Write the structure tokens for this entry.
Amino acid sequence: MAQPAYSDCIAPNSGLDPVGEIRLVPASPVVDLPWAPGHCMVLADMCTQPSPLIGLQQGALSPPTLPSWSGCPRAALRRALVALKEEYGLSLMCGFETEFVLLRREQWVPGRHLEGGLPPLHPVDDAPYAHSRATGACAAVLDDMVDTLENMGIPCLQYHAESGPGQFEIVTSHFEALEAADKLLFTREAIVGVAAKHGLEASFVPKMSSSAAGCGCHCHLSLWKGGVNIMAAAPSLQDPAQPHPSLSEQASCFLAGVLQGLPTLLLFTAPSFNSFDRLVPGGWSGAFTAWGWDNREVPLRLTCPPTTNTPDSSPAATPFSSLNAEYKAMDATANPYIALTAIVAAGMLGSLVKCTLPPPLQVSEDLWRWRIFTVS
């Protein structure tokens, strides 16, 4: 929160200045770091330290309970999730696809590299998407990453080579939103730490090269009530007359709020200049203000159950507990707590005013038909 992704400085207008104290109060279990034996990590809430004069005036012998700082990202997400639960009885579950590039630094050679400078970095391979040559060459480091994450309590669903040179993706399981954001940070730390142990560097930069695929942080969202995924409408409640009969009303309103709030959400989910180099048509990154069933070119993709075609074409389709929405317009320059807070706020606004989803974008001709424009 204190520093932007693009610079080693205090974030402008962050509320942090030379006067006063913001204390870090441990708020997560202590996690051992397998790549750094003897070291551990804990996440923290940011709390306000009252002026010492307050304690002196009150005659206090021990410090008071520290109130949450108004700019604490974890506290903001916690408040949003409490509001979602109290107002609508819903919980938000999230799972992430973490994309990254593995790089190897050249050996320093006198006369070739500047004295005191760092030799350049190069991707570890140039294999195409999902090619065995890429995963084979990096199997040791990738397997180590997965084992490390599993040992840290972060189940991995799959990993594979992505489209860009040296680019890979690790998909981790879903958790309640606050815990999911915590585990996303641990995931990135593990990827960087394990890569370094193998003599490599890992980068999550949204767009490293104009000629290569960018790195996103796709977030899979689902709404739950009473321990049940309520994204899909129960068969008895599916109304063929409704625009999207396979979606529950609560899911439809929530997602409509997210879609309508997309231009503002980008400030929180794609906050860097480099983020917008990634959000371009043809990049499967969410460049259009639209949603669709299994459409990977839109920022809000609804996953189709594996045994059906587009759910909207089958009002009697059986709901699936795995139904979720993939928010694609997010990358690693975003603070995950702030990004999820913004998404929850947009979804709650959609629920409040009963927003409706427009028709899904399923074919390229719809871009013209529905007058859908790019987000950047």
